[in-house]
Design brief:
The complex is a heterodimer of chains A (306) and B (265). By secondary structure, chain A is an alpha/beta fold. Chain A has helices at 40-47, 71-74, 90-100, 106-115, 130-142, 160-175, 187-193, 211-217, 229-238, 258-268, 282-290; strands spanning 2-11, 14-24, 29-33, 55-60, 75-78, 148-152, 179-184, 196-201, 204-210, 221-226, 242-245, 251-254, 272-278. A six-stranded mixed beta sheet of chain A has the order 5-6-7-3-8-9, sandwiched between helices. In chain A, strand 6, helix 6 and strand 7 (179-184) form a beta-alpha-beta unit. In chain B, helix 5 packs parallel to helix 8 and helix 7 (105-139) packs antiparallel against helix 8. The longest helix of chain B has 35 residues, at 105-139. Chain B has helices at 7-19, 22-49, 55-60, 63-67, 71-92, 95-101, 105-139, 151-178, 181-200, 204-210, 215-223, 234-258. Classes of the chains: A alpha/beta (306), B mainly alpha (265).
Chain lengths: 306, 265
């Protein structure tokens, strides 16, 4: 379990992380979602004891990272796959990490085998593709068979086969009861690979919940085609719905569910040709939630997703 | 509290890292080539011109320090080896996985220092003893030679190796402070080459008091069997150089502990 306890981090004038406070629980994959520059990586670096918090603290299983008896046995992390000395072989990189934490060297071959890079283990890391580097990073994270795992944008640079592999891999880690904390700026990725999602923007906590929770909180719209658009439109508006006329002469209704719209139409004697609830995609929810916190937004900002 | 990440286990890990990159291997090869190769060139050149040398210089001629002349060039190679041991961690970003595995930063810095000390002491002593013996063999018959059987000569050769070792540790300490290879190598080179020039531009009365504190002047004192004019004795010079390294290393460790290590450079 990872606990982020009223964490703030200031770099000069920039408040990169602003009073974040949440927990990452074991047994599920928790997505850490936010636009680029929202403080995800900073938070992860602080959890790993690499950066010092300005305020607050982070703990892993109740202990600060610095106090872990054998860090690699408790926490595995992949922050930046390319952050390996390019002149060192994959095996030597892993051997050095293992040795520092008294992990037996046979484990190096195991993780190389598991991540599928045994054949390039004696090659220099500088020549690795992004996908191979990601696999090496994952191998390093697994060395100590830790109960807590952090991955910062692990999908970047992976091919479709690698992405599928990594999603299943995260799920299997979570099923074993581990804490899996995965950051991404891609909502679509999190929608398929995470169970729980923490959303942040500009360093601030925005919301937390399951993928279903998050889409449910979004204002759903209902798409309606009817015989008498004008009459239905005014009837719905008098029931406090917000009604927009779409391009193809249909109505987009917000504020009423499809059952209620059908009843109103029936009451007015209007024939309904189509009545389709539009479930907001996670992408749209994310855009709504973070619209105010995108650091480098493109303008105009008015409802860019409509 | 007890930790599985001990000074020994971290040192063993750092030893794997130290020997598994080409820059170290190249640095060691260059150290040998410069110390022994240039040492042989210098002694051969001195041998061929010895008879034309004026009698006063013949009187003060010191076959020990002349045969160790290659160390003046090798000192840059060992400095670079030391600096890259830490700056390459920053340039590649591997400092993050290193510190995630070893959160106790002082322990990490000391482990690296130990690995550097032991390995560079072996390399430097071998290089210095070989170049000394080779130099005496080249001098033999034409130029007066020195022998390791003489206490002060033996001390000079041993201290020459220690000088190179300490300079690699100085390079490493600068690396801890500066974190960037280029900046580190520039400062290191300036300390050894530019500083004496700057001091040379000062009034004569100051020079006498300042120049003996320069790292390169301390090296000269350490490698000379006899006292050098306006300089410290060999042992005092050794202690002063150790103090420099301790000071820089202390500053480096303080900064390592205080600074964020995560953000990309």
């Amino acid at each position: 379990m990872i606990k982020i306890d009223h964490l703030s981090k200031r770099y000069g004038d920039t408040l990169a992380v602003d009073d974040l406070d949440f927990e990452v629980k074991p047994g599920v994959v928790t997505g850490f979602l936010g636009p680029n520059g929202s403080g995800k990586s900073t938070t992860m670096r602080i959890v790993l004891g690499l950066d010092h918090p300005s305020k607050g603290r982070t703990t892993i299983n109740g202990k600060s990272y610095h106090d872990l008896k054998s860090p690699l046995h408790e926490v595995g992390a992949l922050l930046d796959a390319k952050a390996v000395h390019p002149g060192r072989t994959a095996r030597n990189h892993l051997r050095a990490l293992a040795t520092s934490n008294k992990i037996k060297l046979s484990r190096v071959d195991e993780v190389l085998e598991f991540t599928g890079i045994s054949s390039v283990a004696n090659k220099k890391v500088g020549g690795f593709s992004m996908g191979m580097s990601q696999r090496l990073g994952i191998a390093g994270a697994l060395l100590g068979d830790p109960g807590v795992l952090l991955f910062d944008e692990p999908v970047n640079g992976l091919d479709p086969e690698g992405i599928k592999w990594i999603r299943e891999f995260f799920q299997s880690l979570a099923k074993e009861g581990r804490t899996v904390f995965v950051s991404s700026h891609l909502m679509s990725e999190m929608a398929v690979s995470a169970d729980q999602i923490v959303v942040i923007g500009r360093g601030k906590f925005i919301t937390q919940g399951s993928v279903d929770d998050l889409t449910a909180t979004a204002k759903g719209t209902v798409f309606v085609r009817a015989s008498d658009r004008q009459a239905l439109s005014s009837a719905l508006e008098s029931a406090h719905a917000v009604v927009h006329q779409t391009n193809d002469n249909a109505l987009s209704v917000t504020g009423l569910d499809s059952d209620r719209i059908g009843e109103i139409a029936f009451g007015c004697g209007i024939v309904i040709h189509e009545l389709t609830p539009q479930r907001a995609s996670l992408e749209e929810v994310f855009m709504d939630l973070t619209a105010d916190s995108v650091e480098y937004g493109s303008h105009p900002r008015e409802s860019p997703h409509e | 509290m007890s930790s599985d990440v001990t000074l020994l286990s971290v040192s063993r890990a750092e030893w794997i890292k130290f020997r598994s990159v080409r820059s170290t291997i190249m640095g060691v090869v260059v150290t040998f080539v410069l110390t022994i190769g240039l040492g042989a060139l210098i002694t051969a050149a001195v041998r061929s011109h010895y008879n034309e040398m004026d009698p006063l210089r013949k009187l003060t001629f010191d076959p020990t320090s002349v045969s160790l002349g290659g160390t003046l060039f090798a000192q840059f190679a060992v400095g670079v080896i030391g600096a890259l041991f830490i700056t390459s961690e920053y340039s590649s970003g591997s400092i993050r996985s290193t510190l995630a595995a070893v959160p106790h930063r002082t322990r990490l810095a000391i482990s690296k220092l130990l690995v550097l000390f032991v390995s560079m002491l072996v390399v430097s002593e071998v290089a210095c003893f070989v170049t000394f013996q080779l130099g005496q063999a080249i001098f033999s018959g034409v130029v007066p030679t020195a022998s390791l059987a003489t206490g002060v000569v033996l001390r000079s050769v041993v201290f020459a190796g220690i000088y190179l070792t300490l300079l690699s540790m100085l390079g490493y300490s600068l690396g801890l402070i500066l974190r960037q290879s280029a900046a580190c190598i520039s400062v290191f080179t300036s300390l050894l080459l530019i500083l004496p020039i700057v001091v040379f531009l000062l009034p004569q009365s100051w020079q006498v008091h300042i120049s003996k504190y320069e790292p390169s002047a301390l090296g000269q004192s350490m490698m000379s069997p006899t006292a050098v004019l306006n300089s410290f004795g060999a042992t005092s010079a050794l202690f002063i150089l150790v103090a420099y390294v301790a000071l820089m290393f202390g500053l480096g460790v303080t900064l390592l502990n205080r600074r964020d290590a995560g953000a990309s450079q």
